[in-house]
Write a structure and sequence with these properties.
This protein is an alpha/beta fold. The chain contains 14 helices and 14 strands. It has helices spanning 60-72, 107-115, 124-137, 157-160, 166-172, 181-194, 248-257, 261-270, 273-278, 284-292, 296-319, 330-335, 337-344, 384-396; strands spanning 2-8, 13-19, 24-32, 40-45, 51-54, 87-92, 103-104, 143-147, 203-209, 213-219, 222-226, 325-329, 366-367, 376-379. The chain starts with a strand and ends with a helix. The model has no long low-confidence stretch (mean pLDDT 97). It binds adenosine-5'-diphosphate.
């Protein structure tokens, strides 16, 4: 079965066509600047050269049409016609409390996703536009929504309730939801597989460290806590996001700098994290290079980042009363050899021992701890598209 995986943003659309039988990526690509001048589609068919198609994309429906044309094109296409696209899997950021797993999309589901728009005003409306555009172009193809929040719906009340008046939960559903759920689910299952065990026998901590980052506690296959909250702003220090801070800081800065709450929110999301701290970049490679050149602010920023991750690992070892495996994933987690080693330095009390040689790995599945280590440390590349394709295939069979 060929599954088209769609990840739709407000002005972009990423896609992969995956053969769910062989799990091979047949083609992937990206539409950028949708609705803005200079729209471009970059299409990469497996085994063939990348093609760039610069043509106006006034809206997402036009973008989806161009993607289908590219996938079925005589020259750089990978299937003969639309008939060979058997289902579409859509990444949806927020499923609120309504969705604890992926679902086949129908009108009722669309309405329920729309009701979650309030909780993710930047993401969900864009995801819905992507779904509606695909339905317009491919009305007979079954579609599935895969939610970033779904895997975390198993968290108990003590983990998802904030220390706020309960009425805000009752009125507005203000609680911890967590994000990157598809990745935490995939990576925890994969970590167990690499260890030759099943996930329901293990206590696993997943550190998804990308531009955005989150840590989760997966106890016998179920998420029991995660660092992101109502929004993806909470938790560890990230590329441009502050992560957890004293909430009173917002009012303090707003008063001193004469900012509105929207401006403050934007600073916390876009100008904070390692970018704001280091004054160098949001890219960990740039910060590492600066630190190597003697930039002490860059050095302190990296220390603060590793420390923030290590503290969550400690918290989640406590939450699960132990930990069997800690998996590192996403851009930084998969590639930053030094970062994993620095985080591991904080974990000696768990009986954890990283193996410097095994840790010298980038973007590959591997156990990176010594044979004697009481807790297994792993590098596990995430693959959210494959996870979405698998869930889509299992629901439309
Ligand atoms: P997202 O999906 O959240 O945008 P990614 O998972 O792609 O993010 O991760 C992006 C981050 O990964 C960047 O900050 C980049 O610096 C980091 N990264 C990628 N390769 C390396 C590397 N070799 N060493 C350190 N960091 C890396």
């Amino acid at each position: 079965m060929n599954i088209l995986v769609i990840n739709c943003g407000s002005s972009s659309l990423k896609y992969q066509l995956i053969d769910s039988g062989t799990e091979e990526v047949l083609a992937k690509g990206l539409c950028e600047r949708i609705g803005i001048d200079g729209s471009v589609l970059t299409h990469t068919p497996a085994g063939k050269d990348k093609v760039k198609i610069e043509t106006p994309m006034p809206n997402h429906t036009v973008a989806v049409k161009l993607v289908i044309d590219a996938l079925t094109d005589a020259e750089h296409g990978v299937v003969k016609s639309l008939d060979e696209i058997n289902a579409v899997g859509h990444r949806v950021v927020h499923g609120g409390e309504k969705f604890a797993s992926s679902v086949v999309i129908n009108d009722e589901v669309l309405g329920a996703i729309e009701e979650c728009n309030d909780l993710a005003p930047l993401h969900n409306p864009a995801n819905l536009i992507g779904i509606n555009s695909c339905r317009e172009i491919m009305p007979d193809v079954p579609m599935v929504a895969v939610f970033d929040t779904a895997f975390h719906q198993t968290m108990p009340e003590k983990a998802y309730l904030y220390g706020l008046p309960y009425e805000y939960y009752e009125k507005y559903k203000i609680r911890r939801y967590g994000f990157h759920g598809t990745s935490h689910d995939y990576v925890s299952a994969r970590a167990a597989e690499i260890l030759g065990k099943t996930r329901d026998t293990l206590k696993i901590i997943v550190c998804h460290l990308g531009n955005g980052g989150s840590v989760s506690a997966v106890d016998h296959g179920k998420c029991v806590d995660t660092s992101m909250g109502l929004t993806p702003l909470e938790g560890i220090i990230m590329g441009t996001r502050s992560g957890s801070i004293d909430p009173a800081i917002c009012d303090f800065i707003c008063q001193k700098e004469h900012l509105t709450s929207a401006e403050m929110n934007s600073i916390l999301n876009k100008k904070s994290g390692v970018l704001g701290m280091s004054k160098v970049s949001s890219d960990f490679r740039d910060i590492e290079a600066a630190a190597n050149d003697g930039n002490t602010l860059a050095e302190v920023t990296l220390d603060a980042f590793y420390y923030s991750v290590a503290k969550y690992i400690g918290a989640y070892a406590a939450a699960m009363n132990g930990v069997d495996a800690i998996a590192f994933t996403a851009g930084v987690g998969e590639n930053n050899v030094l970062g994993r080693a620095e985080i591991a330095k904080y974990l000696g009390y768990l009986g954890t021992e990283i193996d410097a040689e095994k840790n010298n790995v980038r973007g590959e599945d591997r156990v990176i701890s010594t044979d004697e280590s009481k807790v297994a440390l792993l590098c596990v590349p995430t693959n959210e598209e494959l996870a979405i394709a698998r869930q889509t295939a299992s629901l439309v069979k």
